Amino acid sequence: MENKTMKIGVVGGGSWGTALAFLLAENGFELDLWVFEEEVRDQILTDRENKVFLAGATLPETITPTCDLKQAVSGKDLVLVVVPSHHMRNVATEMAAYMDEKTIVVSASKGIENKTHLTMTGVLGECLPQIPKGQITVLSGPSFAREVAAKVPTVVAVAGKDTEVARIVQGVFASPVFRVYANNDPIGVEIGGAMKNIIAIAAGMCDGLDAGLNPRAALITRGLTEMKRLGLKMGAEPLTFSGLAGVGDLILTCTGSLSRNHTVGMKIAQGMSLDQILDEMRMVAEGVKTTRSVYNLSHKLGVELPICNEVYHILFDGRNPAESINRLMTRDLKNEMDL
Ligand SMILES: NC(=O)c1ccc[n+]([C@@H]2O[C@H](COP(=O)([O-])OP(=O)(O)OC[C@H]3O[C@@H](n4cnc5c(N)ncnc54)[C@H](O)[C@@H]3O)[C@@H](O)[C@H]2O)c1
Ligand SMILES: O=P(O)(O)OC[C@H](O)CO
């Protein structure tokens, strides 16, 4: 199939869905963009801008905003799903009625479902039984929406169990400013993308306390070990954690001022309550809900994740972040290579 004739739907008009729709339009595709809010659809139609979630980017006429999910996904060759992870099941369940088995599905959402502990391709696989599992892929890596919309050079990974499908998706998204590596370890890519958000909350707390640069580097490094530990238990490839969706995204989110997860951590350390912070945010900080999933999953699987554990107790039990640093520093002494 000639790429540019592919019919594409993007589901989710938040900052990332809008930035990726912009990228695809720049790559020469015409596409439908499903947005949840009528306000956002109307703004894009009249001003060619998503002022709520991605102000400043002019969206070309080749992007058609719609609140009609059927229009966005039916008859499409490729559907990109970019909704917050806690909305994935509802949205995908509704999508199922309109989709046939030929469509390639790409998830760009990062999270682990609270109830099932499934990653987003797992949720999509359950909700879209007509789509062969090899056609469900994930795009992840260090990529702030605002920078992608500003055409800042960005490098990500696309992972799928079917190498051919991952290659097709790679070709669709790749551009001179958006380099895409193919990867065949979707579970590793998704665990990396979901867990880095928890570590970014921890790094934000460290920065909010002004605890120093040494502890932040330690959190990033030992956080990577925790990502690998849980990932390997779930069947991931170790090398994925040295890649873009692992250490790459971890570094970006733990050190980048644009990160919503890092910001949540900073505000907690500065004394705001989680409810207060979330009430003030229209955007999603996936790490909050993922912390709960990972805490429960790690206890179920018997995997020790000390940093994630502390973040859980700070967010949901009111533990003091400074006390958590002390608790982490005074744990039993270990061998660095133990996984
Ligand atoms: N923003 C980024 O830089 C970035 C980069 C990579 C990955 N991601 C991931 O993309 C996913 C989507 O995040 P985002 O940043 O695009 O969103 P966002 O935080 O900018 O906006 C929130 C989104 O939630 C949607 N929403 C609210 N209620 C809803 C409902 N009931 N049903 C469906 N959708 C609803 C809103 O319409 C909006 O699209 C997340 O998993 C995030 O981790 C984001
Ligand atoms: O703003 P955050 O913390 O949701 O991070 C956005 C992306 O996941 C970075 O790759």
UniProtKB/TrEMBL annotation:
- Provide the alphabetized UniProt keywords: Cytoplasm, Lipid biosynthesis, Lipid metabolism, NAD, NADP, Nucleotide-binding, Oxidoreductase, Phospholipid biosynthesis, Phospholipid metabolism
Q: Which residues form the Glycerol-3-phosphate dehydrogenase NAD-dependent N-terminal domain?
A: 7-165
Which positions in this protein are listed as binding substrate?
A: K110, R260, N261
Which domain of life does this protein belong to?
A: Bacteria
Record-linked SUPFAM superfamilies: 6-phosphogluconate dehydrogenase C-terminal domain-like, NAD(P)-binding Rossmann-fold domains
Q: Which residues form the active site?
A: K196
**Any one Gene Ontology molecular-function term assigned to this protein's record:** glycerol-3-phosphate dehydrogenase (NAD+) activity
Q: Which reaction does it catalyse?
A: sn-glycerol 3-phosphate + NAD(+) = dihydroxyacetone phosphate + NADH + H(+); sn-glycerol 3-phosphate + NADP(+) = dihydroxyacetone phosphate + NADPH + H(+)
Q: Pathway, according to UniProt?
A: Membrane lipid metabolism; glycerophospholipid metabolism
GO terms under cellular component: cytosol
Q: Where in the cell is it found?
A: Cytoplasm
Instruction: Give a yes or no for keyword Membrane in this entry.
Output: no
Q: Does the keyword NADP apply?
A: yes
Coiled coil spans: none
**A Pfam family reported for this protein in Swiss-Prot or TrEMBL:** NAD_Gly3P_dh_N
Q: Which InterPro entries match?
A: 6-PGluconate_DH-like_C_sf, 6PGD_dom2, G3P_DH_NAD-dep, G3P_DH_NAD-dep_C, G3P_DH_NAD-dep_N, NAD(P)-bd_dom_sf
Residues bound to sn-glycerol 3-phosphate are K110, G141, S143, K196, D249, S259, R260, N261
- Residues in domain Glycerol-3-phosphate dehydrogenase NAD-dependent C-terminal? 185-325
Class of the enzyme per the UniProt entry, highest EC level: oxidoreductase
Task: List ligand-binding residues for NADPH.
Answer: S15, W16, K110, A145, R260, V284, E286
This enzyme's EC code(s): 1.1.1.94
The text of the family note is: Belongs to the NAD-dependent glycerol-3-phosphate dehydrogenase family.
Outline what the protein does: Catalyzes the reduction of the glycolytic intermediate dihydroxyacetone phosphate (DHAP) to sn-glycerol 3-phosphate (G3P), the key precursor for phospholipid synthesis.
What is the protein name for this chain?
A: Glycerol-3-phosphate dehydrogenase [NAD(P)+]
Give the lineage. Answer: Bacteria, Pseudomonadati, Thermodesulfobacteriota, Desulfobacteria, Desulfobacterales
Q: Which gene encodes it?
A: gpsA
